[in-house]
Amino acid sequence: MQKASLLAIVRHCDALLRTREIGDYDGAVNGLQVENSGTVTRIAAAVDASLAAVKLAIASEVDLLIVHHGLFWSPSHPWTGKKYELMRLLVGHDLAVYSSHLPLDAHPKLGNNAQLCAALGLRILRPFFPSHGQCIGWQTRTAMPRIELARRLSRALGMEPLLIPGGPTVCRRIGVVTGGAGGELKQAAQEGVDTFITGEGPHWTYAMAEELGLNVFYGGHYATETFAVKALAAHLSRKFKVPWTFLDHPTGL
Question: Which residues contact 80 (CB under 8 A, 6 or more apart)?
Answer without folding.
Answer: none
